Each structure stands twice: as C-alpha cells, then as structure tokens.
Input
Amino acid sequence: MNKRGSHGEVAHVEGEMEVEKYVYPPGTLGERVAEALLEGKLLGIKCGNDLLVPARPYCPDYGRGELVEVQGPWTVESYTIIYKDMRGERLKEPQVIALLKPEGAQGGLIHYLKAEKVFVGLKARPVFKPREERRGVLSDILYFIPVE
Amino acid sequence: MGIPGRYVKEEELKRMAGVIEYKPTAKYAYSAGQALSVFLKGLREGKIVGRTCNSCRRIMVPPREFCEYCHSPAGEWVELPGTGRVETASVSYISARRAKLREPEVVAIIRLDAPGYRGDEPDFPGIFHRLCGVTEEEVKGGKVFGARVRPRWRPEGERRGSITDIECFERW
Output
C-alpha cells in the first residue's frame, strides 16, 4: 500500500533476495540435545540451583553446568492464536502458539498447543512424533497437550 | 586442552541428528522514500527529475531530501532533458544473477546534461544504465567514451515507475 509523503505518493519496490540453502549442524552441545530429542527427551542445563531451558553450552556465570532431562509438567505462561503461516498463507484452522515453562525452570519453549480450553497456567506435556520420524529437532515435538 | 568440537564430513552431516537444512525466502518491500518516489513517478511520465542543493547548488540525480555534502535541505526540483554523455562504460557477460548472457550487455555511467554544468565537473548528476547499439569492441577500444546519448523510453503504457522505464541509452 502506498502512503502519502511530503511530495505526494511514496513508492515502494518489491523484490526477493537470492538466498542459498544452508545446512546448520547442531554443534557439540546441540548434538546431545538432538540425540535426547530422538529419545523423546527434552534437555535443560542445571546451573547451581537453576534449571535453564532450552539447554545452552554455558551457564550465565560461565560455569559448565550439567545437562539434565526436563521432567515437566510444563505451564502455559502466555499464548497467542495464529491464522496465517510464516509466509502469510491462511491456515486451514487457527493454531495456538504458547510459551511453555517447565516446573522450576528459567526460560521455556515456544510451541504449538492443542487444548479444548487454553488459559495461562494450564499444565501441559509434549507429544512427540513416532520414533522413526524424529530428526533431533524441535519439530520432533508435534505439539503440547494438557496433562490429564 | 583442545578446542571443543570436531570435524564433520559431509556424509556424516546427512545422518547427524539435529541438523537443520533450510532455504530462506527473503522477500522485501523497499520504501523508496520521499525524494526517490518523485523520481520514480517522473520516470513513469518520461521525465528525469533532479533536485538542487540550496547551499552548493549542485543538482542531484536521483533527487534526495538533503545534500549529503552540505547537510542542508534540498531545494527546487529540476527536470533534466535526459540527454548526456557516456562518462565510462563496461561490457558485462553475466546477468545480475550470474547467468551467462547470450549477448553481452554494455553498461555505462551517463553524465546528464544539466543547467549550470559545463560537463567536466568531478561531481555531476548521472545515471547508471544500459547502452544499446554499442558493440563490445567500441567499449574495449574506448570509442564509446564521451558519446552523446539520450534515453530510449518504453512506451507510456508499459512504464511502471522504475528505472527500467528507460530501456537503455542510445547514441544520437
């Protein structure tokens, strides 16, 4: 949409930049996180008494920390409803994206949430793809569902 | 103590867990801004529009909102005749996307005719564009330098307010 400027209409030019495909390896820590995902586990890092999620290579105090499995349950901290995908195409049905935080942890994950009734404070757990379809990435989790 | 990490072979990457392959789409909408919008609108009407700096009196093509030499707001708008001389030229054998061109293209910087300019100033209103009707040899031999040129406009209905509304510059 063109807008009015001080000398009349302001034009814009649309284009598309050429971008090559990239391959991003997970790195030394990411590999362990990825392998855990294949097993249907989510890892965090234990730094003293704090549990940081997702896992990262170092603690805030530059200490090593220790990778641990996140047990959950996860709590919905915040959520939003999306109607379009990242390319602007309308979704078949709206989806809920939630910020989920595991119990006693700092940080959290942003992921799909499937629930009849969505509210802040809802307790949820991840649902993984079947083992053979997992690739060690966050989309190995299909979505989160409420804990019964 | 070694540096953490290890070498990974391409084959291994294909089997490694957690590898992400992605080809981003980088679409953009670039706002031409205040002054450049006037320039683009001018092109649609078959005009080359410049703008004078109130302080140093130079003419800026494409027009801007302020003079970057004097940091003073730009003044009046000037319509230039469009004619000019080839300041410098080069032959290109590849497209903007690096594909080999069937016919090489000649690109040039055109020093535009403008009121108050003698034609030998180091700073001048100009345009970077294609030259048509010029052979590779004429460029390589330097014959095309200084040639009088004028814009070849696309037919009115085909102009979109883009620099390509000028098909090329041609000798006359």
